[in-house]
Task: structure prediction
Amino acid sequence: MNFQDFDIPTLPRNHKQSGWLTVSTRADGGEWRLPLLYVTGRQPGPTLVVTAAVHGDEYEGVEAIPSVYEQVEPNSLRGTLVMLPICNMPAYEAALRSSPVDGLNLARVFPGAVQGSITQRIAYWITQRLLRHATFYIDLHSGGATYNIPTLIGYICDPGDVGQRSLAGARAFGAPILWGHPLPLAPGRTVSAATGLGVPSLYTEAPGGGYARPDDVRCFTDGVLNVMKHLGMLEGSPQPRATTHHLFGDGNLDQVIAADVAGYFRATVALLEEVKVGQRVGTIRDPFGNLLQNVCADQDGIVIMLRRFHRVHVGDGLVHLTAQV
Ligand SMILES: [Zn+2]
Result:
């Protein structure tokens, strides 16, 4: 099959296939290609789209997606499962969050542009060819190399239909932490594009650090299969992990407590620690050990993200706090 013409509504039923999708040419005469895996059930039903490595240094979903694929067979599936384990191939090749080709963050350019640079074209293809036809969408992220975030499932917190279906999906997915985000979501994200199309969505986070912990890979693999059971695509009931925290906030990691000065950052709180507004959550020092900035909490809340790299520049995001539901 030529994946250039990949079209969810016309996929053959009762079929399982993986292959490469060409998105653009490379300067060396080759092509930028994305891996795509799909399974269509014997019976029609919902369409679930799953993506990973939208940021090129986040590996959990890259490993979880083939594991899901291995466990789903056409004769036991209702509906259609379409998965892209590596969305941002240029960033993945370079082990970077954003693309080294055009400098863009794929999670900031959705819904993309048909005539855009490579990152914008990838976003456009995912939006038009996948999300537009999805019944439900899951985007597998983690903290990548830069950020430390606990293993969680993020959902749309809204009384409308998309929000309620997103929350039910999050409960079925079964990560230890649920994190709800009110509408409108920050623009440019995969999940904001899905929301704009009326498609309920979820995304994950995990500690990352350039390494996929086997338990996070298991959590994401089981989570996708749990959502498929929840949607009636697979037989059986979801077996979610117990919830330890249910959190609420905008989830916008572009707007967090930031460095006022460059230097060496040391967090003085731990992930999921409860802090009060004004409390010191970290320090920035010069190479002689002199204190340059006490980094303080901007609100009461729970620590949901800590910067992992110690060397910080002015404006780098250091700590993010969120509220309990
Ligand atoms: Zn990410």
About this structure: Residues 214-230 form the longest helix (17 residues). The domain at 3-248 is CATH 3.40.630.10 (Aminopeptidase). The chain has two domains: 3-248, 257-324. The pocket of zinc ion is lined by residues 54-55, 58, 107, 141, 144 (CB under 6 Å).
